[in-house]
Specification:
Layout (H helix, E strand, L loop, with lengths): L2 E6 L10 H10 L4 E4 L8 H11 L2 E12 L2 E8 L6 H27 L6 H8 L6 H10 L6 H9 L14 H10 L3 E4 L2 H4 L5 H6 L4 E6 L4 H13 L3 E5 L17 E2 H18 L1
Helix pairs in contact: 1-2, 5-6
Bound molecules: adenosine monophosphate, zinc ion and fe (iii) ion (2 copies).
Length: 278
């Protein structure tokens, strides 16, 4: 039986692996396919696909967008996107610029809280990709302000933390549209982290095609719950580890894997979307 991990970050967002290292790790985990799903960036996909030829692995071009859902943000991923689309790439570039400005705001808030970090170094180290909270958390550990990434999020950077700053204000329907326009299959990422199940019927009407029922932070009973919701709303089921390389306490590559037949369904959905687009 063949398996896939459909949620993987590289160092073009807040993962620690280069695209080549991510593909090598996927090979080591004996995966047939991985979807590279960086936040607001598709820059890893080309190099990952190139490396994948050496391992006989399928690299699915993907991405993860943040959308504003009132109280908190939700994440919408896209699989099988036309990652070379110039307009889409330009849009992502703007999202990354907004992230830089946001990081500066977060760093200012931290300084007000007496936790000064070096913004120039942050940008030098991580600024070539999508700069995010995980990077800031890593810098805070360097400065000894906490003992773990989790502690940083709990005390400062979490969605309700004192140094939290929202990103660009993109509506979920706009995130779905952006993905559909480049022929991608829009999927609601790690729904349990967001705790906004009541949004699912509307998202489905707006063009959502799948739910990430399997995820590192969703236990089997949670996955069952989302499999039922997927069935109820006519959505596909996907899953992935949300591997950030060594960016989190453990390398998660392949720790959440789904049977390849689910990938086939996703691929068919992508073909439908691409046919409508053409
Ligand atoms: P950003 O896109 O900058 O808002 O950062 C989002 C990323 O921060 C997520 O992809 C996670 O990797 C990480 N993150 C968010 N909340 C937490 C948390 N409570 N604990 C650890 N990491 C988190
Ligand atoms: Zn991330
Ligand atoms: Fe996410
Ligand atoms: Fe993610």
């Amino acid at each position: 039986m063949e398996y896939a991990d459909l949620h993987v970050h590289t160092n073009f967002s807040d993962g620690s692996f280069t695209p080549e290292e991510a593909v090598a790790a996927a090979g080591k985990a004996d995966l047939a396919a991985v979807s590279i799903t960086d936040h607001d960036s598709v820059e890893a996909i080309g190099p990952a696909q190139e490396a994948a030829k050496r391992y006989g692995i399928e690299v699915i071009p993907g991405g993860e967008l943040s959308a504003d859902a009132g109280r908190r943000e939700i994440h919408i991923m896209g699989h099988y996107i036309d990652w070379k689309d110039p307009q889409f790439r330009e849009r992502l570039k703007i999202f990354r610029e907004v992230r830089l400005e946001r990081a500066a705001k977060i760093v200012r808030k931290l300084e007000e809280l007496g936790k000064k970090i070096d913004f120039e170094r942050l940008v030098r180290t991580y600024g070539k990709g999508s700069l995010g909270r995980l990077h800031i958390a890593q810098e805070m550990l360097e400065f000894g302000y906490a003992r773990s990434i989790d502690e940083v999020f709990e005390r400062y950077l979490g969605d309700y933390g004192p140094a939290y700053v929202p990103k660009q204000r993109l509506q979920p329907s706009e995130a779905i549209d952006l993905i559909l326009k480049v022929g991608g299959v829009p999927v609601y990422a790690h729904p349990r982290i967001s705790h906004r199940d009541e949004l699912i019927p509307r998202l489905a009407k707006e063009g959502l095609r799948g739910i990430e029922a399997y995820h590192s932070e969703q236990n089997p009973s949670v996955s069952d719950h989302y499999k039922r919701l997927a069935e109820k709303y006519g959505l596909l089921v996907t899953g992935g580890s949300d591997c950030h390389g060594k960016g989190k306490s453990e390398v998660l590559m392949g720790k959440v894997r789904i049977p390849y037949e689910l990938v086939e369904k996703l691929k068919d959905a992508g073909k439908d979307i691409q046919a409508q687009r053409a």
